[in-house]
Design goal:
It is built from 7 helices and 3 strands. By secondary structure, the protein is mainly alpha-helical. It folds into 2 domains: about 120 residues, no CATH class; about 60 residues. It has a 3-stranded mixed sheet with strand order 1-2-3. The radius of gyration is 17 Å and the shape is globular. The N and C termini lie far apart (about 40 Å).
Length: about 180
C-alpha cells in the first residue's frame, strides 16, 4: 500500500491567511489564491512528469513547500523549479486577456508572483534554477549576494516611498540564505 501525502500547516500561517481574507474588502486575496494555486500546480505537474512522489505539502509563513522523492538533479531539477513560474506566467497572460476586475487583479498578482519567484535567490524558484545550473557553493554565494542586494533596494524603497514590503522580503531571504550552511 502506497503512503499518502502528509499535510502540514502552520497555525500562524492559517491565522494570517484567514485574517487577510476576512479583512480584505477589495477582493485581492480571493484573486491571489488562484494565481498561487496555478503556480504550485506547475511544480506539481513537473514533479509528476519527472516521476517524483509528493511526500509532504507544507504551508508555513514562507509559503507553500513541496517535499518529494527522489530529489532531482540537473535538467530535471531545473524543470521542476521553472515549471511553477512558467505556468504562472501563462496564467497571468490568460487572466489578463479575460479582462474584468477580478481577472486583471489575479493576472497581475500572478505576474508579480512569477517575477518575484524568478529572482536568483534561494529558496525561490529562480534560486533553485541557479542551483541546477551552478555548483552548489557558487549558487549559494550568488544567492546570498542577490539577497543582500534586494535588501538594499528594499531600504531605498522604504526610505523613498514609505513602503517596507520589499525590505521585509529582502530580510526574509537574507535570513533564509545565511541560515543555510555551505555544504562544501
Amino acid at each position: 500500500m502506497r503512503p499518502g501525502v502528509k499535510l502540514e500547516f502552520s497555525p500562524l500561517a492559517i491565522l494570517l491567511i484567514a485574517l487577510a481574507y476576512f479583512f480584505d474588502t477589495s477582493g485581492i486575496v480571493s484573486a491571489v489564491v488562484p494565481a498561487a494555486a496555478v503556480h504550485e500546480l506547475g511544480h506539481f505537474l513537473a514533479l509528476r512528469l519527472c516521476k517524483c512522489r509528493l511526500r509532504c505539502l507544507r504551508l508555513g509563513l514562507a509559503g507553500l513547500e513541496m517535499d518529494y522523492a527522489p530529489r532531482q538533479e540537473g535538467l530535471r531539477s531545473l524543470l521542476c523549479a521553472a515549471a511553477g513560474p512558467a505556468l504562472g506566467g501563462l496564467y497571468a497572460l490568460c487572466a489578463c486577456a479575460l479582462g474584468g476586475d477580478f481577472w486583471l487583479i489575479s493576472g497581475a498578482a500572478s505576474f508579480l508572483l512569477t517575477v518575484f519567484n524568478l529572482l536568483p535567490i534561494l529558496p525561490l524558484d529562480g534560486g533553485r534554477v541557479l542551483r541546477a545550473l551552478l555548483p552548489e557553493r557558487a549558487a549559494l554565494r550568488f544567492s546570498r549576494c542577490a539577497a543582500l542586494a534586494l535588501t538594499g533596494a528594499g531600504v531605498y524603497v522604504a526610505l523613498a516611498y514609505h513602503s517596507a514590503a520589499l525590505l521585509a522580503a529582502g530580510l526574509w531571504l537574507v535570513l533564509c540564505n545565511f541560515c543555510t550552511r555551505d555544504r562544501e
